[in-house]
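Consider this pair:
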Amino acid sequence: MKKIFTLIMIAGSLTSFSQSSAPSKAPIQLKKGLVITAVNSNDMSMDMGMGGEIKNNTTLTTTIEVTDVMSNSYKITNTTTKAKVSMDAMGQESNYDSENPGDPESELTKTFGEKIGKSEFGMIDMNTGIYSTDKKSEESEGNPLQSIFGGLDDKSGGVSDAFFALPQGKKIGDNWSTTDSSEGVKVHNTYTLNSIEEGIATIGLKTEMQINKDVEVQNMSMTIAMTNNGTGTISVDSKTGIVKKKMMTTEMEGSLDVMGQSNPVSAKGTTESTYTY
């Protein structure tokens, strides 16, 4: 069950993409004391072959507070306040609700329960909207996949998607693209400015991700080879750079080689993030 749970967490993280930088950024406009509530939902179905179907639905609620305004960045604190998770792994059902935790020894409680009420401290770049932490959390150090995928066993609660710096001078229908490469992961994003109405810009997003990496998780060596394609939309306040809503649909194909055993993986997922303040 622990191995299955690890594979679920990996696949779930692959339906989330971090925002890449884009040319000619407009600055992010935030005020000290601003509090944003982020609700991030992930619905994923994965097939590992041989009838091994896995379904996972996760909703995390996080508060993001701007604690200080620096010359080129904002200091923020993000705190996970709620988590609700349901999994069906080849007929084995498990659930977690932070408002009714249940079995303290379950894998879900151990993974999500310890995050409730805990805060992470980081920075938002004024010119790019990119989120970074001051130092690695204990979870990041213990789980290298978190830094790769930006969503696995992650306390950030969608902070990396909460801000989007719309390039200056873009007109309706204009396109631009970015490519990021790091440690066996290559991400290519293509953006299209679809509309601007009452100060809210709607942006189409297509993402292509290639992963080929050897990692170690929970004392297990893994080779990850994945292709992940996604499409979605981002609605953002064009004056502040604060995202109102982001929706993504993704499809994944590849394999996870664990302890000499190859696990073919295909998955489909949807993510929806909303930000209110």
Remarks:
- Residues 135 and 249 are 31 Å apart (CA to CA).
- The two ends are 40 Å apart (CA to CA).
- Confidence is low (pLDDT under 50) at residues 18-26, 136-155.
